[in-house]
Amino acid sequence: MDPVRTIQVNTAPAYEVRIFEPAAISSSVAGSQVNPFLPAKQAAEEVAAFLGAKPNAAPDAHGAAPDQQAALPRVFVLTDETVDALYGDTFMDSLGPLRESAVRMVVPAGETTKSLTSLGEGLEAMAKEGFTRSDVLIALGGGVIGDLGGFIAATYLRGIRYIQVPTTMLACVDSSVGGKTAIDLAAGKNLAGAFHQPALVVIQEGFLYTLSDEILLDGLAEAIKCGVIGDASLLEGLESLFLPSATTETAAQSVRARLLTPAALTRVITAAIELKRRFVEEDERDNGLRQLLNFGHTLGHAIEGASSYAVTHGHAVASGMYLCGRASKQLGWSEEDLGRRLEDLLGALGYRLVYPYDAETLYTYTMKDKKRMADTISLVVPVRAGRCELKKIPVSELMDFITAALA
Length: 407
Ligand code: NAD
Ligand code: GLY
Fold this sequence. Notes:
Blueprint: E1 5-9, E2 15-20, E3 28-29, E4 32-33, H1 37-50, H2 66-69, E5 75-80, H3 81-93, E6 103-107, H4 116-128, E7 136-141, H5 143-155, E8 161-166, H6 169-175, E9 180-185, E10 188-195, E11 200-204, H7 213-230, H8 232-242, H9 251-259, H10 262-282, H11 297-306, H12 313-330, H13 338-349, H14 359-366, E12 376-384, E13 387-394, H15 398-406
Parallel strand pairs: 2-11, 5-6, 5-7, 7-8, 8-11
Antiparallel strand pairs: 1-2, 3-4, 9-10, 12-13
Helix pairs in contact: 1-3, 4-5, 6-7, 6-10, 7-8, 7-10, 7-12, 8-10, 11-12, 11-14, 12-13, 12-15, 14-15
The chain binds nicotinamide-adenine-dinucleotide (NAD) and glycine.
């Protein structure tokens, strides 16, 4: 099966992001017509072909084609319990000649898995199984699995190849591309990590049909962010997709019905990755332009922290974008009222715009932000749709910013 889009990311090494639309319609999952097994099968076949496995080669007594056995890498598949229950067996069984020597590691789902403990367990498992430098890790899951798997791959034997197979909207539009890998420490999120680009990203849109409404919205927030910071036509496209109201639909039904179509998914995922590709190619190490990807994240992280991570990342970022848009207009930093525009779009999608944290609480958590310098903090400020800029403000002005956001 051919990808509907291929995006080349010119980092060192360069790699492709291959985007596949759901191929067949044969059963109903969460109200949408898609076969839940096909994405896993097709993703595994794509990975196998990329690694040189010929699916139709006759296997020998050990299950591998004789002329391939020596040349093929072994694969270490990292996934979480939820993804494994849905897709794990199909994925493993579809690896063709790679299946025999493959190892699968299944970790608990959720952010707490991005830990030193999981990193250690992953490294130890790879070493115990005798994986070598020519072998490959496959991260089959959302951003948690991608970040953890990428960091295991970055550190095992000082770096081996890995392939991202994202299964959440967030991972498709953001975390699977760009090579940021990380785990969390007790002091905060993503405090240990490495830049390590994947060898390939395989996006099978069919995976997204089994996501819950909340998890789908987490990823959609990052796509909206891409529209605001660098692609006005993406923002307009999302507005025309979601703003026309249908009285019979709830917000959640509207998201599923309008987003979960191959045309909409491909448009949104492609635009978000194109934007990220541009930023990452120009600033792979996050010293300037790439920081614009943090739009909405300063107050978003404060909301996540204040809620003890009960508010998930994308929902917190959605509120953070809205609040930043409001404050930026009020403080005269924006040409356009992005706060109002985001209020309409995010509201129609069912995001909560403001969480019950007062200015003092948001200030306290913002001061813990790892991007804060001694006495300045960098904000990503929306100038107009499709254009943001970095603005360094003294910490002494942070309270004014938060007060304007909540006013
Ligand atoms: P996640 O990986 O925890 O996935 C969310 C939930 O969805 C999990 O419970 C998972 O088991 C489940 N799930 C995954 N795929 C599914 C499917 N197809 N059907 C049903 N359920 C499925 O979270 P996420 O939102 O994908 O990613 C969040 C993480 O990404 C955070 O740790 C964040 O720091 C990181 N992140 C990294 C980058 C980067 O550039 N590296 C960028 C943004 C976010
Ligand atoms: N998600 C932010 C980045 O990749 O830089």
